[in-house]
Structure formats: C-alpha cells, structure tokens
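Session log. Operator J.P. requested a structure for one protein chain; no other inputs attached. Running the standard single-chain path with token output.
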Amino acid sequence: MAHIQVKNFDKPDETRSFEGKGHADIVMMADRAVGRGVFEPGWRWSNNVKPIAGTDLCQVSHLGYCVSGHMRVYMADGTEQEVNPGDAVAIPPGHDAEVVGDETCVLLDFGEISEYAKRS
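Structure written below.
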C-alpha cells in the first residue's frame, strides 16, 4: 500500500555545503531527491560548486521553482536567462549561474539533483 510522505526542509535528510555562500538541503521523497538551494549574494556556480563537481559547467538537469531572490543562468551556447521569484524553470546540463543582486536566492529543485554538490 502506498503511503503519504511529508518532510520539512528545516530538517533535511542531508545538507550539502557549497564552497562558501550557501548550501543545498536535500529530502528524499518517493526514492527521489528534492532540493532547496540557498544561494547567498555573490554565489556563482563556477566559484562555489565547480570545485566540488570537478566539471567546467554544471552537468545537472534542474527542474525548479524560484522562491526568492534572482539568479542568472548562462548556457554553454551563450544564451542566458534570469530567474525571478515565482518563476518555474527547466535548466538543461551545460550551464553556469550566479546570484543577481544582494538578496539570497532560494530555489526548489525537483530535477536530477541526487549528486548535485555532493562530495565524493
């Protein structure tokens, strides 16, 4: 029989710290990772997660919702897009990103984030 799962990001199953300026809280739901990324002002993937990932660009696919703050995403093909509060976003692999402004950006991520910012 299926059961309802309820978890709270205030008590995540795991917290993954970035190289400064934020972290990702992970809860496991129905055998899938769901994340809450907390990206502090000045955060940039290439500075704060690249040392963990060991790749030139983020190779994770994100499917998310922006709760607060602003983030600009830079794709390998040169296109870029800003993500703002209330936006739903699908970001394919092969990108960099940075927080825009002086407000912490909080993104919920339902994508393929099981290995995102995970130290080996």
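Operator note: The mean pLDDT is 96.
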